[in-house]
Write a structure and sequence with these properties.
3-stranded mixed sheet
């Protein structure tokens, strides 16, 4: 049976900006209020997508959210014309306004958790959109995310779409950024590792004290149940709370895995030796664990370079590549370690570097930008083909970005209703290009 590993990248939205909304994300806070370049950001992400597609991997596109979320601003008490709503919000609640302009849906690793049909009892692919309860600007995404995913994977015989978990402190869910699947071959039943930052109800357990732990044990356990996973093939792992307090806000900032390889920092998990033991037992001893020592790459180096926020992909020729941001080359400790890693050939035998600076300045690297979906041939044929990147779609999207995106955006622009209208015009056209139907609120009036 032919099985495909596909990557679906979030297309950067027209209002990409730096508002410093993400508590615990060092890059987001550090670069707050800088001038952004939405056009460059979208083109950088699109270039990475094309590169992976040219390597022979299946590459898809996830449409961005409509921003500003004018409907949400009206729900919060601002009224009148669109111009009036934007002006009132800017005057009385500027953080609400910047939150409703956030383009954070570009980081598709937070869109959902996905379990392939090889792992699920009903042999369908299961999707649960993340509720993103920890931050307001992200908590307004799930409903539209659910519509977009349903339009992409639109066959009930092959795909099962769950509602997001209830939005609560105890059930915080941040999606695939805290989920890793291991397997010998993609068609085999895998081992799904869910990484959480804290327990939602049991406050006697260890948890970070400075920054919020966004994923709870209860949320991860609920998703494993919803996806009909065999409990014997599931492992629940707690993130090291000390690292969350240093800025490791998701597991994918400190660890990445795929198939039979786990690449992680020495201090990634709580009770790390026990985590390794459980994984090896469930994988029958067929897991290569590449642990990066802190004396070679410190936690600070890992966060600033996003070494672990890389994509770990197996190419059609069998090569395993680490898809890295340019910042890894710029960090001498990280780059020296990467050269040593390639020499020992422990399971990673090439690296590919990308300039994703616009995303990186907001705290999102290559892995943040993509949602991984494993597809059988039948599932591949059943999904919406218009979202799959081809040379033709690449050129079309490139032209679309050049036409609709600004090359400079600051928060003072947020009261301009022309920006709202331009975003609506751009995204309405995009839904036709990607054949998504009416997924945005402004299309459903």
């Amino acid at each position: 049976m032919m099985v495909h590993e596909a990557n679906f990248d979030g297309l950067v939205g027209p209002t990409h900006n730096y508002s410093g909304l993400s508590t615990g994300n060092i890059a987001s806070l550090t670069n707050s209020h800088q001038v952004s370049n939405p056009k460059m950001a979208a083109l950088q992400g699109l270039k990475k997508m094309r590169f992976l597609a040219n390597l022979g991997l299946i590459q898809g596109v996830i449409a961005p959210q409509m921003r500003p979320d004018i409907k949400m601003l009206r729900r919060l008490g601002f009224n009148g014309s669109d111009r009036r709503v934007l002006q009132q919000a800017a005057q009385h609640a500027p953080k609400l306004l910047t939150s409703c302009y956030s383009a954070s849906s570009m980081w598709a690793a937070n869109a959902a958790t996905v379990s392939p049909s090889a792992d699920t009892q009903d042999q369908r692919i299961h999707f649960t959109p993340a509720n993103l309860a920890s931050h307001f600007h992200r908590s307004i995404e799930p409903q539209t995310t659910a519509r977009i995913l349903a339009a992409m994977f639109n066959n009930d015989n092959h795909f099962c779409h769950h509602s997001p978990l209830p939005t609560s402190e105890q059930l915080g869910d941040e999606g695939a950024a805290n989920h890793t699947r291991f397997c010998a071959q993609h068609q085999d039943q895998g081992v799904e590792m869910f990484v959480f930052g804290r327990y939602g109800f049991d406050h006697s357990q260890l948890s970070p004290s400075c920054y919020p732990a966004r994923q709870t044990y209860e949320a991860s356990a609920a998703i494993a149940r919803l996806h009909q996973l065999d409990p014997r093939q599931v492992i629940m792992v707690q993130q090291n709370p000390l690292l969350i307090d240093q800025g490791v806000f998701h597991n994918d900032v400190i660890a990445v895995g795929n198939q039979q390889t786990l690449f992680c920092h020495q201090y990634a998990f709580l009770n790390q030796a026990d985590v390794y033991l459980q994984l090896q037992q469930k994988m029958g001893g067929k897991l290569a664990i590449i642990e990066v020592p802190d004396n070679k790459v410190s936690v600070n180096d890992a966060i600033s370079s996003y070494l672990f926020n890389s994509q770990l992909v197996t190419l059609p020729n069998g090569d395993v590549s680490l898809i890295l941001p340019q910042q890894c080359r710029d960090n001498p400790h990280v780059w020296q370690y990467i050269q040593q890693l390639l020499q020992v050939k422990q399971g990673i035998n090439r690296v590919d570097l990308f300039d994703l600076n616009q995303s990186m300045q907001n705290g999102g690297g290559p892995a943040c930008l993509r949602l991984r979906v494993v597809l059988t041939e039948a599932e591949y044929q059943a999904m919406n083909p218009a979202v799959l990147l081809t040379d033709s779609l690449f050129r079309r999207l490139q032209q679309w970005i050049e036409l609709h995106y600004r090359d400079r955006l600051v928060e003072n622009d947020f009261t301009d209703p022309a920006l709202l209208l331009a975003s609506q015009t751009a995204l309405d056209e995009l839904t036709h290009i990607l054949k998504l139907g009416s997924v945005y609120d402004f299309q459903r009036v």
